[in-house]
Amino acid sequence: MSATERTATLLPRDAIAAIAVVVALVLVWRVVVSASALLLAGSNSADTDRLRSPLDTSTPDAPWRARLARNPTDYAALVVLALELERQGRITDARDAMREAMRLAPADEQTLLEAAAFHVRVGEETQALAILRRAVDLYPSASGKAWPVFTAMLNGGRSHEFFAGVARDNPEWWPGFFSHACRTVGDTDTLQRLLAVRTTAGTATIDERRCLIGRLERESRWANAYQVWLNGLLREQRQRVGYVFNGDFEAPISNVGFDWIVAGQSGVSVETQRIDGAGGRRALHVEFLRKRWAGPPVQQTLMLFPGKHRLEGRGRADGLETWLGVQWGLYCLDKSGADGRQLARSDRFRGTGPWVDFADEFTVPDGCPAQVLRLELANPRRDADLPGNVAARLNGSVWFDDFRVRSLD
Amino acid sequence: MKSRALSTVAFLASVVLAGPALAQQPTSGVAKLADLVGDVLVSKGDAMVAGMNGMPLPVATRVVTTAGAKVTIAYEFGCNVRLDENSQFTVKVGADCAALAKEVVALGPAPGAIGGGVGTAAAGGSALGTIVQAAFIGGMGYGAYETFKKNPVSPN
Predict the structure, then answer these.
(1) Inter-chain CB proximity B108 and A227 less than 8 Å
(2) More confident residue, A133 or A153
(3) How far apart are CA A317 and CA A397, in angstroms?
């Protein structure tokens, strides 16, 4: 009697069939699992097997290989092994180990940062930047590591395509990075190019513009600063750009670049408001609440060409209690951005009165690339070409409207 | 004699008629805008206003191109001065085209840009590597395996 015949006599036919099906399923499962492992490992299977085999227990990398032999998915051991192999100068093996770690833990912060650092060290910047971007996309806390690398790349004039791509993609972290870059990247041309990409893509923020314009102004690159500001205006705003921008106060004050800049001061309110008698619907309203004078509450930087000009405007004091009064002064900005000589000034405003037109002709000399028009304390000596420089307390309001500078040449 | 008188009258008439034209010459322009693309601003009175093809340009007029814009300053005597984006030109009298072209002032970053166009040359790899490596302060280093494994952000 054969073994099969003996089994047949011991088990019913149905039971034998069931066992056969189970055995077949187990065999199929093992085949599927093996195939999956091969697919996952891809072409690196030989490499990863090599990485996980403890070839020589005397080498420094042996403990990590042993660890991997026990647990092939230990990505941390793979990263440490990669670093050890890199230290030994075995860059190809190190790269294989790092790649395998990235495959096993593609979203682990430390793995990403170590892999990025590795690629930087071996000169593979494209890979490094892509991995760093992934790290920052996933972990905002990684910015502390990534920003210095990004700015070093920018300072080196490298990887333009990467940065252009990210600038267009507009990830959440971009404004934070640009703020960092605006302070630390040495070449402002690079920053201008980045902002140009953002402006074209329609993603540039006001803060980005403000930061770059401020940086260019501090470096006395007035024309570039003005151009960055001009390019950031809406198309309809660019149809007519007054030498005094928004001098009729019909548009909201943006506080950016060559628009009106309001210095936030407690006890001083500066805003555009509707009022009867203004040239248009709105005018500038400055209100002092028993405020000790602490500097110009509102000003605008101008870019007038050398030659003869005429400053015009209108104002109305509205219960402004101060013995000095306030006036508008126009000054050259010297190369350091400090005030230079006074070019023109308005009438003095104090007390209460009707709307008053004022005008003053002046000449912008050569060597005066930018000017500042600002509200200031009037000088008690009306013939003085300096603002008032005494302690003064102000209470009440004053209104202004229809500022313009006309070219007389 | 009669013809002489007629020619005198004709001369006087031409002077009278030409007078206003001569008086307008300073504002009628020595050049015009041509081939205008995008937003080009031209100084006028108390503002920079949008330019358009054929706009006359008197001497001392400023022309500014914004991002993505370009224009040609076409002089009456045949000289063409081309302005690419982010540049400025002040209309001057002159007959030397090359000298006029040199008066164009670039207001944007130098050529070789991130957003396309000509890329700048890369700095030396090793020098950059040194800079960038310095940025990776506090890397994991060797033997920090246990610290690594305790990393709570690890998803695996």
Answers:
(1) yes
(2) A133
(3) 6
